[in-house]
Write a structure and sequence with these properties.
5-stranded mixed beta sheet; 5-stranded parallel beta sheet; 16% strand
Amino acid sequence: MEKSNEELATGISKLGKMDPFPDEIFYRIFEIEDNVERQKYIELLRNAAKAAKRSMEFNNLLKQFQMDYIQRMRQTGKKTAFTDQPLELNCAEWDATDMGVRTIRYDRNMQPMTLMACSHPIMPIEILKNVDTSEERITLAYFKSASWQRITVDRAVCANTNKIVDTLAQYGIEVTSDNAKNLVRYISDCVGYNPATLEPKKSINRLGWVGSAFTPYEKDIRYEGGMDYEAIFKNVSEKGGFGVWKALCSDLRKNIPLRMMMAASFASVLLEPLKVLPFVLHLWGTTGTGKTVALMVAMSIWGNPRMGGLVKTMNMTKNAIMRNAAFLCSIPFAGDELQTIKDKWQGNFDQLIYQITEGVDRGRAKAYGGVEDTKTWKNSFIFTGEEPITKVNSGGGSKNRVIEIAIDGPLVTDGHYVSTVVQENYGFAGRLFVEYIQETESCKIMDRYREIFEELCQLDTTDKQAMAMACMLLADEIAVKLFFTAEQPLQIVQVKQYLQSTRDVDIAERAYQQVLNWAAKYQVRFEDPKEENSLNKGEVWGKIDDGKLIVNRDVLLSFLDQNGFDYTAVSRKWAEKGYLVRNSQGKMVHQTKVYGIKSSYIKFNLPEDDDTTDKDGFMQVEKYEQETLPFD
């Protein structure tokens, strides 16, 4: 028969000085659930030990039993017992019931203290480990407002008393500075004592290649991106009939520019396996040519091509463009109506081109310290607009990274019908295209790419232009093999007109041609105003003499600056090409006289006469009246 508390206490007073305290008296302490009754029992034992003159020994043993009890509870553990809980966890010493999460601990005087972690049910249910950064996030389930709710936060939030209050309180979780420490410990215990149940799962916060896997098609990798990109992620999906989509696109692909847009879209997922830098395909022309609809057709390869989803209006900030590109990562970035952000880039898109084709975003500091992980991407960019994306004064790098196509006719005949069909039937081709890449030996794809690239390099173009075009031709070849078997792959002869020549890309060459055109247009400014028949009644910019164009240095620098050329950058190339005449000291600036006035001049070698132009190498142009000439 079980002894009462009084009997156990009385037994202590009868013990001899060498008799050990029975373990039973200590175990009874932890069996009593009521705090008041427990404390009465402890005081009863203390008085009995005091009567036996063994108070210190009793208190030391009581402390050791308490520590042993806590350790055993952590090893065997209590279980969460929430109604309709998502899963059951070992929660160590914590009582996790519908009344909340709490535990009992003892102070130095062995007084029991109730520690509250949270006044309502809460528990960790999932740990996500980012495959890019190896950082972990934790999903918490909590019961509030008569329902289970979920929130996913950084692991650091659940390990810091300040962060856990700042982050969780705003979602309605009852955490304050008073119970934050206990909630941190409770969550940590749940994670620590349930390694199998809460084994970290692979996660990603972007689309595209993850090694040999590809999101969102990989089932073993969870998406855990923010709400900002939820619309894009959900639109990368399948809907409707694949046959309907193929039948429509087979007819549309008779238009080469539209087919090039589809090729650029397919090629986006080849950039990572082929280790090729991002590139831009830009189609421009007057309104009403169906550019937007064609862009939707190209993006229907991957999912719903609705505006605002996979097709973006370009009316967005620079930061938004980079962040969207980083999220898409391997899926093409489709931007409609590029001219809408012309003012944001001061009328010149060179900086935009450089930034997006580098594939790396600028570093940013975190709000709470440290630096964010640098965002990267490896995809193609397909833009449409009403004007070219590069100008005559664009840098060679930007010209090199862009393939531009001028639209001289409609891309689609019935834009409304085409846009309706592709918004109801989409997403199949992208998945199958990716699966083909995954199933094909990478060396075979690389070898075929190199073959096309080397053929393109035989043309008058640059390596970067050849790389971009080779990717598109290879993508079109695979698409024909998989989907459009009645067609023939695009041939180089069909697309070589869209490649920039080395002369087009060379900024020094373009600047030199600009100077020649400028001098031809304003020949009157290079005439001697003192001659009887001269029409030059204003400024003198230099002279044209004996196959040389001699220009006042300040006038030349002003012209180059107004047209976006840097003299220091282009003059070195001019000298290498033999376009400039150096003086006896090897310098490019001559101190000489022109029509009796000594100043600093730059001397150009004029191209040799190769047609019916006049002896100076310039076309005869109408001489303008003095009041219409600049710089007067």
